[in-house]
Write a structure and sequence with these properties.
CATH class of chain A: Alpha Beta
Structural class of chain A: alpha/beta
Number of helices of chain A: 8
Radius of gyration of chain A: 17 Å
Largest sheet of chain A: 8 strands, parallel, barrel
CATH superfamily of chain A: Aldolase class I
CATH architecture of chain A: Alpha-Beta Barrel
Number of strands of chain A: 13
Strand content of chain A: 15-25%
Number of domains of chain A: 1
Strand order of the largest sheet of chain A: 1-2-3-4-5-6-9-12
Oligomer: homotetramer
Order of helices and strands of chain A: EHEHEHEHEHEEEHEEEHEEH
Largest interface: A-B, 37 and 37 residues
CATH topology of chain A: TIM Barrel
Chain lengths: 265, 265, 265, 265
């Protein structure tokens, strides 16, 4: 078992300055703590609740920023692609591609993304049972791509709420793909603010600790120097200046469970 | 209040013969019962559980069949489009476009479909609260298209199960868009057969009666002369030869509620 | 199939005057519409969210009121009993006993109530699958009591919300027991007001119409001349002066489905 | 923060021999690992799915066994009481009383149990939001009893399934009562075997690790030397001979989170 890796960054590319600064800070923190880092940011939020919400700088400008992050900060970069994204252009810049949860059942899309050959982080739909992710992984692997990751980000629980089933992490391990837990989207309250999704930032540490102890390969967390001012998903982002204390606990938990082994296996 | 209309047909275009025969039978039945009919069939099932499942004849062949149905049987036709469908080609053949439930939050996609100018049946995601459909309708209408319908097809209820919230029909009426209830996908058991979705055909009449009495503009039902032999969604299709008895009841219920008015308003 | 019967009344016995007046009004209305009526009111709300809420007049005073209703208004009466109710005293006054949803799995309690020999309306727990009610019915019938009814009142759907599964009505019919739909508790928002349960009165007609069209033997509805002033469950009570219009629609729907038959059988 | 305590034992008192042996083994293991132990076993399973299931030896015989465990093995003992249990007799034997999840809203019952003056472990109903446990705790404390614990054991998630919301543990901490996670009932599949409840024993370690990392005062686990032969709840019991490895991991996790502190506070 490898130690925990981290996928982190601001939800959306807000500005070049924010991207570079947050990447730098995360890089130094992760280097110090010994956590492999993949920097994440979106260039386009293609599925905002409302058409009025900020969507990002667009692909061209966004990729330019991610390229600078990658080159100047020296960290690998992941971004999410959508049903109408020109995949080649994105794949030529980033290190890992990510597919949105809502699109996990779109066979063509999943296969077009996997066919790019980069590692792909497949987010599990909020409507999908964990054992049904095996079909999504199979579709992706059928393209010949063996670098597939699966990511839990909560499952529908009544209206405007998600719940995180820790059993799902163990179930998805059986795909053989590294399992990632998305601790910030899992505390979203979808549509919970009427015109936008709300979030319960205060539960990010609770779910992150639980998931790491349940046993995961990686953790996904959106972070921002000032979450209340973030242009997307602020209510569920974890403050950048509180990342160190949280990561320290998570690393210690990860070490315990990976040393002691999973009793369920 | 207009009387109930029906959207019906086999889930997928299996063959020209099946399409023409089922369209003819539905046309004659609906004419006799006084129910406006829109014939529905898919040319491509883009989001099957497994990559091994039958997906349909493809767009070109499928559209040829739908065009014959339209011209020779003389009924309007609806089909569903996907994230990578050439919309113009489809829009030039059919009368109504339909967007899949999983894609209801993809802003670009919804707006590209609405921008075709045809009436659009927007299926509500299995993960969406009914009041959040107002944002989807707003996105579609922002293109200038005023012929938007909304369609309930069940909401996630635990794993591998959907539940139909009859309150949702009343909530979605407030969008001003005609509300359609999809009585056959609502009895799907998503992923319930392991490699494919199961279904509870026996509950189609129960939910259809309930929804019509709750008050809807239209009813959506997939039907097949031999559901057990259907190439897609057979477990939840309603047998074509039992459509008459079911429709007769539904029409009578529709008449009662529309004559007496909705006490909740 | 017998025509629909109605179980109705104010949630709790607030005063003798209210009880007699509401019973009289319901009796006359139901006689006019040809609906068999069972008058319902509770003497003790044993499971309020908070210990501060009004619980009712207590058993002795409550039973005196119910006895007057029964004798002077001439309608049969049902009331709910609890884990510590002296059952004999209640059974000597009322015509039907009702068991609370939360207590549906308490074997001794269910059997003690059924052993009283009166008809028993068994409410299905908010946590129970409809097919699991068969075990509850079996436990009740094991006492020799064959007059068992089963009642749907919504199932847990996320937090502080219930959803009504119309399939459950068809599933529970298979117990052979008459199926009752509780249209007012089904729109409760349990705990939804913080210290008490909220309710969505506006959806009572929607769910009542849906359930009657799905097919039930009886309908349960709490009603009050002034729901906003009711001492218990006001948010989900249906106004007494709007009962006539609602019942008229429901009777017409019931006639349609019982004449035409259930296509699912 | 105190280190983790353990409530454990076979679900039901099957025999004096089993009770004494399992208590002895748990006592020695917990002494070695430095975990405070409370031995748990039921004398009567009052809410089995079916009336045919084994219910236990009854109160009198069961209490005799628990008394021997307490005296001869020298461990404190907890047992669950029900709506019709003579509380005084039970309270005179055991150290802690436990109230069943289904009964968490029965005000009289909760208050009668709390009034016994012993510490009470209040199980949260499968239908209750975690923030609504505050009312249950308030009712219990209103009797003057300050030794109240709250216990999470899963929440309804569709039919025949429970899901464990790790956020609930943090929410319930706000009552000020020590929070216990029941790792074995949380993997029950209620009614999932048709006539009895099923269980997913393999997920006990996953949920136990997650809950301890989320942060709890105590852990509840039913255990049995031969779970497949257990007379109650075998499918979700954790094997006694695998308790050591599991506990070792849990203790290490507990130490990490309690040393590092909860970032959410």
């Amino acid at each position: 078992e490898q130690p925990l890796f981290l996928i982190a960054g601001p939800c959306v590319v807000e500005s070049e300055a924010l991207a570079l600064e947050s990447a730098l800070e995360l890089r130094d923190l992760c280097a110090e703590l010994g956590v492999p880092l993949i920097y994440k940011s979106s260039f386009d939020k293609a599925n905002r609740s409302s058409a009025q919400s900020y969507r990002g700088p667009g692909m061209e400008a966004g990729l330019r920023v991610l390229e600078r992050v990658r080159r100047e900060v020296g960290v690998p970069v992941v971004t999410d692609v959508h049903e109408d994204t020109p995949l080649d252009e994105v794949a030529s810049v980033v290190d890992v591609l990510q597919t949105p949860a809502f699109l996990c059942r779109q066979t063509n899309f999943i296969q077009r993304v996997a066919a790019c050959g980069l590692p792909v982080n497949l987010k599990k739909g909020q409507f999908l049972a964990p054992w049904d992710m095996t079909h999504v992984v199979d579709k992706a692997r059928a393209t010949g791509n063996e670098h597939i990751l699966v990511c839990e980000r909560g499952v529908s629980f009544g209206y405007n709420n998600l719940i995180s089933d820790m059993r799902a992490l163990a179930v998805m391990r059986q795909t053989g793909a590294p399992v990632v837990f998305d601790a910030t989207h899992s505390v979203q309250l979808p549509g919970g603010q009427g015109h936008a999704s709300g979030g319960q930032r205060e539960f990010v540490p609770v779910l992150a600790r639980a998931a790491v102890a349940a046993g995961v390969s990686g953790l996904f967390m959106e972070t921002h120097p000032d979450p209340d001012a973030a242009l997307s998903d602020g209510p569920n982002a974890w403050p950048l200046d509180r990342m160190r204390e949280l990561l320290a606990t998570l690393i210690a938990l990860d070490r315990v469970v990976k040393e002691q082994g999973f009793a369920e296996q």
